[in-house]
């Protein structure tokens, strides 16, 4: 009887740990980046900004971007850019108004990216890149 009770307790603890670990991993896979109030880096070879770079973990699989005030709804292209403008990763997504904020959701795959400093490029199709400094960690 004691052995059965101990087995039930161990199974319950193991299940709780598994669920906790799984939900933490899923939460970490979604990154929210707030671009409201951030000044983009301008020009072909932008220099550093007064603002600290946005942080993106390598394990990120989805991003939610709160776009700058005045952004329009519609299809956007999102890219991770080197300082010289070379694209390391590119994705698209549709920005929609949610609670008075234009929000862009997109899938990302940073598995081929090394940790370091980059620029997050954002543009509506056919427009020029708007760049924000980011650090992939």
Cα-based radius of gyration, to the nearest Å: 20 Å
From the N-terminal CA to the C-terminal CA, the straight-line distance is: 50 Å
Strand content: 35-45%
User: What is the percent of helical residues?
Assistant: 10-25%
How many helices? The count is 1
If you average the pLDDT, what whole number results?
Answer: 85
What's the order of the H and E elements? HEEEEEEEE
Q: Mind summarizing the main beta sheet?
A: 8 strands, mixed
Can you walk me through this structure?
The structure is a single chain. The chain is an alpha+beta fold. The chain is 20% helix and 41% strand. It contains one helix and eight strands, in the order αββββββββ. It has one helix at 2-28, and strands at 30-34, 54-56, 62-66, 74-81, 87-98, 101-107, 116-124, 130-136. Strands 1-3-6-5-4-7-8-2 form an eight-stranded mixed sheet. β4 (74-81) and β5 (87-98) form a beta hairpin. The radius of gyration is 20 Å and the shape is elongated. It starts with a helix and ends with a strand. The model has no long low-confidence stretch (mean pLDDT 85).
Q: Could you list some keywords that capture this structure?
A:
alpha+beta, 1 helix, 20% helix, elongated, 137 residues, 8 strands, 8-stranded mixed beta sheet
List the helices and strands and how they pair.
Elements: H1 2-28, E1 30-34, E2 54-56, E3 62-66, E4 74-81, E5 87-98, E6 101-107, E7 116-124, E8 130-136
Parallel strand pairs: 1-3, 2-8
Antiparallel strand pairs: 3-6, 4-5, 4-7, 5-6, 7-8
